[in-house]
């Protein structure tokens, strides 16, 4: 009898097994929330809120198995386990590089975020295996299951479901009380995940993804009015530089992953960017320009420069909205008899460029198929920059003039791989290998640009051209920033982190002296700056950029997650800091926060409603 009793104690009911699994996942999720992501704890209530946030949704997710037949129950149980773990680990890997969470559209552009290539492997760690430790425990639990106990009483089901539901409601309700903009400003994904947990977040994101396509079907001309109203008050001063590059060819060089900290920096007395440093002496160098891209990376930078609109909060606008009407830079220039083209050594389909370039009005897209790409002249994502520029100049020579061309480099891309014969500077010597390699690929890119300028001179294309060189977005994500701080000797503070989001912007007009301009600005401001130099006054005001020569510095440079930077303050991860002292100054950011919300909403309305079709 005693023997039978102990056997009984060891047996577990199906409900117990589900509860143990949910608790294990809950603990894992809490670990990842606190240690895997960089969600800033601003007040003491953040801690219990974050701890509780995953529980309700996990309970409900696993509860589904109770309502199916005996055959389907284990299948659903394992599906739930896989879904929860895939979301958690997928988020963790994505966050490690992008400091952001996976969104529904990202799943449709999986290849563009590195797929399962070397970039992803670089982000994994052997310690990650610990996250799957419950995979050993669950089969052991299942062996202890009693058949009899497989039937879960209705009363138990009600208790189980009510607990899950109440926890979800408490989590969401508490989140809304603390931040009324939780859902209307859901592009602040760090804030959203912190408040409602990763699983509720994914459910919300999924629902949002399902309803947003309705935006353009239901939109009318009247929806465009608020944007027009808001933007008509945008200041439009002129300077004596207006029209200084009128009628010239325009060459834009998108410098892959190039951050501003490399400019005028040395590794053991060797400059990382010797050519760009020299070029700056003879150019307009905008030294406080911020990366404003989001999940669309390079394509987002292209989008901002061409349209003056903000990128989308989730996914790439190139992938999602290639059928919209855009009043783009190429279209404006085409009306002035420019021939417009893009040169890029990667596949035409990457970032859906092929389709989007049609929408943006480009006459021609020279892509991988137009280049001689071999094993020897390729590295990482494709053709090496030196070969790319060399072959590009030959094509450029044949273009009708004046032309507007964007050239997109590729070699300086994460994880920054380069054969030793191409390494023209020795690796840096920080704790972070990614940063050590980064300086070599940036140095290589600099050499490639130098050769391009020489070729342009040789072909007689240099004098009559205006060159716009810009870093497309950060290369060193927050995860590896420690190495940059080691290199620059700066302290790892939130304000210095914001400073690292600066990308170089150099506008070189042969024959025009130029100077350093240290006004704050962003990539969205590049378009009006080019138009100013070209002497083009656009009638179309539905663009959020401001000419960098006259930009009012009190206007915030707005990032896609609702954060921003002004001359005096920066709002980052939900906290307002003084730029000068780094001290927290909550009330100083309130008005700017409103401006950020307003501009992002108006821009989103234009894109989701395809509103520019009504203004043509
Ligand atoms: C690939 C290039 C790099 O075509 O645009 O992509 P990224 O990951 O930087 O957006
Ligand atoms: Mn890029």
Automatic annotation (TrEMBL):
Molecular function terms, GO-annotated: metal ion binding
Compartments (UniProt record): Cell membrane
Sulfatase N-terminal domain segment(s): 248-536
Coiled-coil ranges per UniProt: none
Keyword check for NAD: no
Chain ranges passing through the membrane: 12-35, 47-68, 75-95, 124-142, 158-177
InterPro entries named among the record's database cross-references: Alkaline_phosphatase_core_sf, LtaS-like, OpgB/LTA_synthase_biosynth, Sulfatase_N
Residues at which Mn(2+) binds: 256, 298, 472-473
Active site: 298
Keywords, ordered alphabetically: Cell membrane, Manganese, Membrane, Metal-binding, Transmembrane, Transmembrane helix
Chain sites annotated for binding substrate: 413
Main location: membrane
Annotated Pfam families: Sulfatase
Membrane protein topology class: Multi-pass membrane protein
GO cellular component terms, A-Z: plasma membrane
Family of the protein in this entry: Belongs to the LTA synthase family.
Protein name, entry field: LTA synthase family protein
Natural source organism: Bacillus salacetis
